[in-house]
């Protein structure tokens, strides 16, 4: 077995001749993570992407698209709580929510912890992802059959254009911009459509990749959202199984400020179980390391 | 080549038959990170541990002990700034500092950015690490020849017992407790000796491992330090090339509180270049995710 073959295998995400190890390759860094797999539960090529779900001892079930880790049972709540609760708690009374992407269901699960919510539309391009999640990822998909949830299988970047002044909160839970059709959810045009689909008090969050390897996407997402929304702030959270472990999210709104207008009492009295997010984490997440602050100042 | 052989290779840190990839194996998680190596610059077995320094395109030079990544040129400042500046800024006027471990020199480099410092003793057990760092890691070792620095090559857990009421700040920049003699620097006895060696206004920081894979060490370090010091607080920082990317540090003092007694103006007016740490990061680092807060409450 030549070295060349191994490198090819890694770039594909799964080393074909060593099916017991999962390798995720972070291309810009010539590096990545690996995990010992116990059992490959599901593997399919949909119209949009390769879908894999497998079992590990440590991370539980792991879900990947095009060889890029999306969710593990171990740390899904790090990501989903940070993506969802920042815009949800910043809205005074969120009733109608749009989740774009988020096929594993983790974002919907978190949205529904807010009692005020009457309706969540989840627009996921790939129906096969949702079917696989319902079957193999109960940890994230548990609330997808809730009566308040409407599932739409369309390109979210187009779907959002059907609405004006409709949603209280929009959550952009996209895949990696380089995987499948993920890039559609990183255009200025799309962010403009989100702005229009939000009501006056509307808040939005968007997963914004990592700084270390994919700094270009983070800067792009942030600077494009900033062109569209009067209030735009990047925040960070730990996310062990995503590249670098330092994950970027963008908060945006038509006027609500995520620090000045934040009410910690609302979080303290929430009454639902949260494992990562709390009132101190909310404020802390907007404190950026100096190198990142400087980069954003120049955008 | 059988699967068994590959697994053995990974556990050792370097896959012998694929010298162009560095694998760090996180044993409790059956997982790890890998990096493409360009060139192996240095490899030696000292009395205490295996030392490796190699070059990569993305991370620059990488330094590992017993196959565990200690420093990369790309992200050394994430770790060293968080370990050093929290206790240094909390001390009203740090003149005499003890660094225990820290052989690559990164902690000393950061300590010397504080103008008040008259003397730093760095006590590193392994002289070969310091020699290798001076030769191959100028990014961290650049200040080891400063006249204010005294290098001592002894077991820090014993060396600190020579002092009573001597230091303003002690920084425990240990290797992994499972590597070399690292475990010595995680005992209650040792923390008690640090307490005695500190002056009345003394502050201390200790690297405290990660929660996801090595939670036992983090809890142990924190709870033992807490038994000894009246003020003990865990804080967190991003650290991409360490396990999980979420790195724990413990701050301790004889009375100074790292939040209530913190003066952000001191940091704003520092006048030295810092790339990660700033006054907002200082406060944010003490905000812990709920799962971790709960664990610490029970210790």
Name of the CATH homologous superfamily of the largest domain in chain A: Vaccinia Virus protein VP39
Provide the CATH top-level class of the largest domain in chain A: Alpha Beta
Strand order of the largest sheet of chain A: 9-8-7-10-11-13-12
The largest pleated sheet of chain A is described as: 7 strands, mixed
Largest interface summary:
A-B, 48 and 47 residues
Total DSSP helices of chain A: 11
The percent of residues in helical segments of chain A reads 25-40%
The topology string of helices and strands of chain A comes to HEEEEEEHEHEHHEHEHEHEEHHH
Given the C-alpha coordinates, what overall shape of chain A results? globular
Poorly predicted regions of chain A are: 1-19
Strand content of chain A: 25-35%
CATH topology description of the largest domain in chain A:
Rossmann fold
Question: Given the helix and strand composition of chain A, which structural class is it?
Answer: alpha/beta
The residue-averaged pLDDT of chain A reads 91
Distance between the termini of chain A: 47 Å
* Domain module tally of chain A: 2
